[in-house]
Design goal:
The chain has 265 residues and is mainly beta. It is built from five helices and 17 strands.
């Protein structure tokens, strides 16, 4: 199954189903950290692939499902975040995160995530992620409450005058793995991230976790403010609404791509 093709250096680069499955295999490279992600909400809007492509580094190509690209807003809880040589720390390892993301592949056909922003309420985590992973983290005032199965979640970026972004949702239905080849699989089964260093060099990082156990979600409130902050005008309700249970995540060292593959940070 081929979901997108792009021409690179005279060759056709194809994202295959096998490449998507291969990304789930535990890497043999060095683990740099561990995390736990819980109570994730995945909100996705369909968007013109050319709009996405215009925002990407030259080394990356928009990834599509049946010809469409997608922009996601994902609020969730980060827990037990730590480098491999430290235990979790109570004042540092638990915080909230909300990201705006799309889906891309590199010149080797590896599918992954491109982040436009990642809001976080732990300033040291923001600093470390910017320095170590070259990701566009922003410090935000954030809060979340859980009442029975309903989650209420809000975020207000400290450096922005935009209004607060509010979300409220509740999972329902049976948990399941996303079926290979479906839109759900395309949106949530992502194990590479791509980032760009100052100066233009693109890096690839990989994470490993068991496949998400996803469920449908009832959404009582949602905001497009984070997408607007990233420069996107979204209209209407999301076309896909999913939530996911907890996963324990291993994080691996960044590698250079685009002519310098194999060099690590």
């Amino acid at each position: 199954i081929l979901s997108f093709t792009a021409r690179c250096c005279g060759y056709i680069v194809m994202v295959t189903t096998q490449a998507r499955l291969d990304a789930r295999v535990r890497p043999s490279t060095i683990v740099v950290g561990h995390q736990r992600w819980t109570d994730l909400l995945f909100l996705h809007w369909q968007i013109d692939p050319m709009i996405i492509q215009a925002t990407l580094p030259k080394s990356l190509t928009v990834d599509t499902h049946e010809g469409a690209a997608y922009l996601g807003i994902v609020p969730f809880f980060m827990q037990r975040v730590r480098p491999r040589w430290l235990p979790p720390l109570p004042w540092l390892s638990w915080f909230l995160e909300l990201n705006v993301r799309t889906y891309v592949h590199d010149e080797e056909g590896r599918p992954g995530v491109w982040f436009y922003s990642l809001d976080c309420n732990q300033p040291l985590a923001v600093w470390l992620a910017r320095k170590t992973f070259h990701l566009p983290y922003f410090h935000a005032a954030m809060a979340a409450t859980q009442n029975a199965e309903r989650i209420d979640y809000c975020s207000q970026r400290k450096s922005s005058p935009e209004p607060r972004a509010d979300y409220a949702w509740q999972a329902h239905g049976s948990a399941r793995e996303a079926a290979v080849g479906t839109l759900e699989f395309f949106l949530v089964e992502r194990y590479y991230l791509f980032a760009q260093k100052v100066g233009g060099q693109t890096k690839a990082g990989q994470v490993h976790h068991t496949p998400y156990r996803i469920r449908d979600a009832r959404v009582f409130a949602h905001s497009i403010v984070p997408a607007q902050q990233a420069g996107f005008a979204l209209g209407g309700d999301p076309v896909s609404v999913l939530c996911a249970d907890v996963v324990d995540v291993s994080v691996y060292r960044l590698q250079s791509i685009g002519g310098a593959t194999g060099k690590s940070d």
